[in-house]
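tool_call: predict_structure(chain=1)
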Amino acid sequence: MDAALPEKLIASAFAYRQLNRPALEAYAMWSCHANAHGLPALPLAAVHAEMTKCFARPAGDACVRNLRDRVMGISRKGGAQAMADTPDMLAIRRTPTNKAPPQDTVTHTPIPGSCEKPAYPKESLRKGEGGAVTIKFFIDAEGVVVDGKIVKSSGVDRLDQEALSALGRCKYVPLLKDGKPDSGFIRAGHTFTPEPK
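tool_result:
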């Protein structure tokens, strides 16, 4: 492995310290794997905006997998082994190192200004589709979403996915345990109300 790689990553981490931590950790992993496989990794500057966008999406979103391939400069055919050895979404998203989180799920609203409300999909607006979505998120001790799933659907998949994606980009007030911020499960939701025709 190139001995200069850690210094490059440290420089990137400082230059892009506003990038969310899971994305930065993922970039470091991908760069190291690319380096170990003799692949030229793209500089963080080239994918900064995409990293921010992709890692705001729910776990399992193809955006992260595709970005990983691009960063490492590998194709589905040519880099099969490198891809198999490279951590994907579940490995990259931070796994809490503290004790098992409390199972009680509390309803939370995002911290004001930490995100934008879900956009109304144009197709749903056109069709007059609406409904309430309830999502269960696992947040870390900093209030950052680590994973999430739909627990009550609006009945329309595109509305559910928009709510999951948008609310997953938000930051929430951390749960408290013994007076200290802790990770745990929260509920968040959004109601899409179609405009009257």
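agent: DSSP finds eight helices and six strands in the chain. Proceeding to next step.
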